[in-house]
Specification:
about 425 residues; alpha+beta; 3-hydroxy-3-methylglutaryl-coenzyme A Reductase, Chain A, domain 2; about 20% strand
Length: about 425
């Protein structure tokens, strides 16, 4: 395989595909072996999850400690490559425990599918025609998932909007669907496809797009916590956190990094449980800009006692049934570790961890700076990449941190010196 153009690649076995890729990229036998080392996910399972499989990519899975959410104890599995995230979440959760931990709630498991209608001359009149036929549209949609209906879910409402666009006015239907413990993408997409012919018939227009929206603003989760000034390190630290938050609230350049820190806590749980990280990320960042200005997903305040109080509100379209959550063996174990009983509970836990991660980052910024917390873990990674063996690893790390020279060349220099000794 000397070109990326290859007919019938998907028909090959995983091993045959990897052989072709190895030839293209000059992979060694050891590198090929690493690609096939899939951990808990066997290669047959991987081959049925996506197309053109040649191996699997593994991430470390750590467990964040100390979380109490709505009075319940949780261990939080997190799949991530970035140092200090798991430790930071654990430390923040420990600080929050002094005032009862985290308190979370949700607005339910509502997803929306959009049906786009174009080529209508009277869009506002068309909107009313559609609403007059709301019950029939709901009936057609719900016929596509009798199991969901039997469990109390299904399409519950219909919203209709008229939009101005580059190609003229269009009418857009929102199918409002309770997906229960499923993320719901396949369910709402199927319903949108089903109602499209009927919508064309009653409007005389042309239906183009029929697809869910990842702006799940009817599927919000919220979490709050109080952190005593003593647990945080004093009222001066509280004020430092508030100053950092005010910066993020005033400046999108800062807000996006602020929110990235929140997602440092959220995305690893979404990954570990086999949910859709791209859907959660896109929905979160869009929600952050819903006022027309990109702003923080969290808020931080000082209460009458001088303690820090924080809250978060974020769309959370996660599920416990369907997709990788039920296929990937590690995802199933992660859900078991969490002990959650519903998709809504999972969303609440994820929101609490996002708030904790933000707290940890804000505290670090307000005190020692973010880099100090990263330094020792980063130094350990650099030392390992430089070839430090277990017997000298701690010594290499200690010297690099002390000298504030966490670099590959310096690590290699230290390894040579210590090996000679």
């Amino acid at each position: 395989m000397k070109t990326s153009s290859f007919s019938g690649f998907y028909k090959l076995t995983v091993e045959e595909r990897l052989k072709e890729v190895a030839e293209f990229a000059n992979l060694t036998a050891e590198e090929q072996k690493s690609m096939l080392d899939t951990g808990g996910l066997n290669i047959s399972q991987a081959d049925h999850m996506i197309e053109n499989v040649v191996g699997a990519f593994q991430l470390p899975v750590g467990v964040a400690l100390n979380f109490m959410i709505n009075g319940k104890e949780y261990l939080i599995p997190m799949a991530i490559e970035e140092p200090s995230v798991v430790a930071a979440a654990s430390n923040a959760a420990k600080m929050a425990r002094e005032a009862g931990g985290f308190f979370a709630s949700n607005t339910g498991s509502i997803m929306m599918a959009q049906v786009q209608v174009v080529n209508v001359k009277d869009p506002f009149n068309t909107k009313l025609k559609i609403l007059e036929n709301k019950e029939e549209i709901i009936k057609i949609a719900n016929e596509k998932d009798p199991m969901l209906i039997s469990l109390g879910g299904g399409m519950k409402d219909l919203e209709v909007r008229v939009l101005d666009s580059l190609v003229g006015p269009m009418v857009v239907l929102h199918l409002v669907v309770n997906t229960l413990d499923a993320m719901g993408a396949n369910t709402v997409n199927t319903m949108a496809e089903a109602v499209a012919p009927y919508v064309e018939r009653i409007t005389g227009g042309r239906v183009y797009l029929r697809i869910l929206s990842n702006l799940a603003d009817k599927r919000l989760v919220r979490a709050r916590a109080e952190i005593t000034k003593n647990a945080l390190g004093g009222e001066e630290v509280v004020d430092g956190v508030l100053a950092a938050y005010a910066f993020a609230d005033a400046d999108p350049y800062r807000a996006v990094t602020h929110n990235k820190g929140i997602m440092n806590g959220i995305t690893p749980i979404v990954t570990a449980t086999g949910n859709d990280t791209r859907a959660i990320e896109s929905g979160a960042h869009c929600y952050a800009a819903r006022t027309g200005v990109y702003r923080p997903l969290t808020t931080w305040e000082k209460n009458e006692e001088g303690n820090l109080v924080g809250s978060i509100e974020i769309p959370m379209a996660v599920g416990l049934v369907g997709g990788a959550t039920k296929v990937h063996p590690i995802a199933k174990i992660a859900v078991k570790i969490l002990g959650v009983k519903s998709a809504a509970e999972l969303g609440e836990v994820i929101a609490a961890v996002g708030l904790a991660q933000n707290l940890a980052a804000m505290r670090a910024l307000a005190t020692e700076g973010i880099q100090r917390g990263h330094m020792s873990l980063h130094a350990r990674n650099v030392a390992i990449m430089a070839g430090a063996t277990a017997d000298i690893l701690d010594q290499v790390v200690e010297v690099m941190v002390k000298e504030k020279k966490v670099r590959m060349d310096y690590a290699q220099e230290l390894i040579k010196e210590l090996t000679k000794k």
